[in-house]
Amino acid sequence: MCWRSGNLLFRGLANKILASSACSLMMKALFRRDGFLRRSVSAENSEGPWLPQDIMMQIFSLLEIPDLVRAGSVCASWRAAYTSLCTTAHSKLQETPCLLYTSESIGDRAMGLYSLAEKKAYTLTVPDPPIRSREVIGSSYGWIITADERSELQLLNPISGDQIALPSVTTIGQVEPIYDDAGTLCQYEYTRYAADWISETPPEILDLNALRDYLFYKAFLSSDPSTGDYIVVLIHLPDYQLSFARGGDVEWTWLPPHTMYEDCQFQGSLLYATTALGEIHMYDLGAPAVARKIILDKVKRSVYERIYIVQAPSGELLQIKRSDDECEHDAILELSKVPKNTTSIQVHKVDLTSEKNLVEVDTLCENVLFIGRNQSLCLCAKEYPQLLPNHAYLTDDDYLDVSCFKDRRRDIGEFDLENNRIKEIVSPQLWSNSPTPVWLVPNPRRMSRLASHS
């Protein structure tokens, strides 16, 4: 990138620094010095604007992914700061969530990344197996959890291209491998049981690619897998049970006997899991013996609302209820063809000191939600000025839809909590309906190049 382009980018960065509430007063004072800016962007400085590397890393940490890639291409000193930032294990990055999706138009081995900050789409080339042959069952810390055509699970960072194989699906209790005469895996035997019941129907024999639709609902990470210290939790069928694996494990660990889980949230090694009836259970997955602690007992009787659990920027625990218009349709055939839309989102604060334990919240104020088949997020719109406060950004995570009705239009949009109205993220639709799109907070470690597409 030539110095003129770098200087234009630098001027844009300076404006962002001055507007950011996350930047120090000292740095803002530095950027307000006209003499400093003139020296930094002078034509004589062919190596690009100069700043100490630690200051550059602090600036770069405020950039969205596309700007970060561009900044790393300006000159050697900027590239060094960019590389250092992307390889620092605990570097703080402030990335606006993006919509991650697949599309026929960009091929079987690429994913689309729609930036809410730039209102622009980018293409990411990702490693095999082809991403359009996989299902996406989770998104946390810039990584997605995928199930391939053999129903085996992988962690994938779509930005860096890093990929990690997870323990084999055959180590989940309800699954047994079936081999042909040559000793090649050819099918799975799937038995429906939980800790306190077993189905009266015989085990089902499934093709390799069919098991994933019968078994997986959602997956979550405790931390960034690039550090090597992480835990993966699965919500899986039958009955939406929990299993987990730590980084380096060779098999899944089952967490019986509890069922009907809808969403999970980590705080360190503590796993908070909410059920379809509004219960919240806590598990310490770092303890030698994992036991359940009931944080909140059953608070609802209906299972037709989807439930999420999320930590607000203030540290409070929120429980989210999401309703849609599917109940208006009766026949399965009709369900598979009629588009579904979210009609209501209710927010409750978990307050164990109150008599009701759940306190309804009328407004999110400056906060914004991201919910779907991803780690549920609650962010402060003041820190992300491109986002709309008191809104929820939605993707589809209804099990029947994403596993059975794969051609059905996805329930994706910006939901206004004040008016109970949803509108499109972008038009025309960029994504294929399957695998279902998810929200991704880009993780730029070992960044790959982005190529823009319309």
Which terms summarize this structure?
2 domains; F-box-like_dom_sf; globular; 5-stranded antiparallel beta sheet; disordered C terminus; 5-stranded mixed beta sheet; single chain; 33% strand
Q: What is the structure about, briefly put?
A:
By secondary structure, the protein is α+β, with helices and mostly antiparallel strands. Helix content is 17%, strand content 33%.
Question: How would you describe the overall organization of this protein?
Answer:
There is one protein chain. 17% of the residues lie in helices and 33% in strands. The chain is of the alpha+beta class and 454 residues long. It has 2 domains: 3-87, no CATH class; 98-453. The relative contact order is 0.13.
Strand segment count:
31
Q: Give the helix level as a range of percent.
A: 10-25%
Query: What's the overall geometry?
Result: globular
Distance between termini?
23 Å
Major sheet size, sense and barrel closure: 5 strands, antiparallel
Order of adjacent strands in the largest pleated sheet: 30-1-2-3-31
Class derived from helix and strand content = alpha+beta
Which spans of ≥5 residues are poorly predicted at pLDDT below 50? Answer: 24-46, 447-454
Radius of gyration: 23 Å
Tally of helical segments: 9
- Proportion of strand residues: 25-35%
Average of per-residue pLDDT values: 84
Please tell me the total number of domains: 2
Break the fold down into its secondary structure elements and pairings:
Layout: H1 3-19, H2 25-32, H3 34-40, H4 53-60, H5 65-71, H6 76-87, E1 98-101, E2 110-115, E3 120-125, E4 135-140, E5 143-147, E6 153-156, E7 163-165, E8 175-179, E9 185-190, E10 193-194, E11 197-198, E12 204-207, H7 211-215, E13 216-221, E14 231-236, E15 241-246, E16 253-254, E17 261-267, E18 270-275, E19 280-284, E20 292-296, E21 306-311, E22 317-324, H8 332-337, E23 342-350, E24 358-361, E25 367-371, E26 377-380, E27 391-394, H9 399-403, E28 413-416, E29 421-423, E30 438-440, E31 451-453
Parallel strand pairs: 25-27
Antiparallel strand pairs: 1-2, 1-30, 2-3, 3-31, 4-5, 5-6, 6-7, 8-9, 9-12, 10-11, 13-14, 14-15, 15-16, 17-18, 18-19, 19-20, 21-22, 22-23, 23-24, 25-26, 27-28, 28-29
